[in-house]
Amino acid sequence: MTIKDTPEEWEIRATATPFVGNKTSVRTDDVVMPGGSVVHRDYQVHPGSVAVLALDEQDRVLLIKQYRHPVRQKLWEIPAGLLDIPGENPLHAAQRELYEEAHVKAEDWRVLTDVYTTPGGCDEAIRIFLARDLSEADGQRFEVEDEEADMEHARVPLDDLVRGVLAGELHNNCLVVGVLSLVAARHGDGVDALRPAEAPWPARPFES
């Protein structure tokens, strides 16, 4: 048996959007279950995101620390951001986020992994990239605001992050998934076997 997620869509009898926010909305669908009953399913509609695990020549990961109001914590994270434009190329978005949040550019890009953050209540899909061969970006730094104006920056050894994840000290999903995926890749077929940066992404189709 092949263990692989497969596309499927059950019948929707009715749909409504009771809330529309700045970037996301909430949708209510009446979904027909396999037994014929119809149930309400509420979920957040999200444009999708990208994240970047940027690894320097000393095997350190570039991190930012940012206040996240819903969980009332400042979390260590890897650079990430929304796909602001429908159909946006995720690699271009990731390069933009790395520049804006860290003023860094990278020469080597690969797809580390693709995940759904909370598929029981949100349709957000995130593509996490591995970026290597880092250098300082050209030009002026991007002007940040709101929570981003209070960000801290650090470069932390990969092994220290693994320990922090397993100790329950680091909680950001992109950081956790990205760090453990990189370790798994190294112990598997190697980083060079990762998908290319422009690999198809069915969850958020895009043009090269």
From TrEMBL:
It holds the Pfam family NUDIX. This is NUDIX domain-containing protein. Keywords: Hydrolase. It comes from the Bacteria. The lineage of its organism: Bacteria, Bacillati, Actinomycetota, Actinomycetes, Kitasatosporales. Residues 44-178 form the Nudix hydrolase domain.
